[in-house]
Amino acid sequence: MQDTRVGFGSKIGGILAAAGSAVGLGNIWRFPYETGNHGGAAFILVYLGCVLFLGLPIMVAEFSIGRSSKASTGKSFSVLAPGTQWKWVGYLGVLTGFLILGYYSVVAGWTLEYILEAGINGFANNRPEDFVVSFQSFSQNPWKPLFWLIVFLLMTHYIIVKGVKNGIEKSSKIMMPLLFIIVIVLAICSITLPNSQKGLEFLFNPDFSKLNSSVFLSALGQAFFSLSLGMGCLSTYASYFGKDAKLGNTAVSVATIDTLVAILGGVIIFPAAFSVGIQPDAGPSLIFITLPNVFQQAFSGIPILAYIFSVSFYVLLALAALTSTISMHEVSTAFLNEKYGMSRGRAAKIVTAGCIVIGVISSLSLGVMQDYTLFGKGIFDALDFVTAKIMLPLGGMLISIFVGWYLDKSRVKNEFTNYGKMKLGLFNVYIFILKYVSPLAISAIFIKELNLI
Ligand code: PHE
Prior knowledge:
two-stranded antiparallel ribbon
């Protein structure tokens, strides 16, 4: 039965799909505003530490769970640890992915509106204050964002229904190279702007006095969010990997691509912002309010460049978001399909419908439902906080305990070495991190930042 499971057709297809999941709004929307809010380069260093010491080993752990169970995350724990409570880690992952997809699609939908606006040259004659007004009136409008949210989820749905090879893999193979080209071209344009060095300094010259206490939780949450870790998304993709996929190498490729795109995202945004004297700490609206303005001012002498830059930037965001929403959708769809025997199409319909409901609530929470709060935050912000800063790191910690302590060592070794075909290399370091470093580090950050004691 296991041999008939569908899978990615090629190694590169698997890597691009996993990188597609990782590279998303997290890199180009969330990373810049978290960096902006936490003082720039110093935050980035803490973030890099989280990626290297926690993200990479946990990614390999997720890959091992997925590939050795040949099941999506919602079922893999029941396969590897039958009859135990570990199955809840899988369910937690499905729930987390589902919730993230709900609010993430709201922002993903905004990118479509901005492609359209930029495309009809709607930014051309705006004054700086107009961007604030137009973003606020758009995001608080009860209907328009809902329309784009639904369009985005239907695009995701369409690809998911096409299946693993013809949908996920094929679309990643087209979208990811396009995305890389746009990122690189935009980054080059941005650093050639006058005064761009201020932005580069902000990104690369750490000022440790800016490290405040919330930096660690934010950097940790950002690392999990950006690498798609802690909810079994990559483990679900790994269940479609072939036997010859080298898990360690794949993890290094995915983490490197993800980190490079995040840094390049910063290179696009900060030099452009500083070049026109705009502060980088505008928060989540940074790329929707600040940037269109920046593009107009930065290229004010050459309107055609402003036009091309704006349209390509939002196309880039939409592409990045789509390869990520696909991966989150797949987690729930595969779960319903494997656990309840539903057809892929039916499972996908249920997931899409559910996400539309969550998305609509999150979107309205920015406007007409502003007064409803959860944990003292609006629903959109509460979902972002709870999923990225609590559920993902918690999931990551449990995954790391599962592979480090519970899972049979010979199985873990087999996955790490591709059934003995590769050297053991860093195996002991990997296990040490999973067993001790990540559970302790994540608990310590939780205890301190969430004031648990
Ligand atoms: N990694 C994606 C991004 O950076 C978001 C994501 C989180 C995707 C969790 C899948 C799972 O945008």
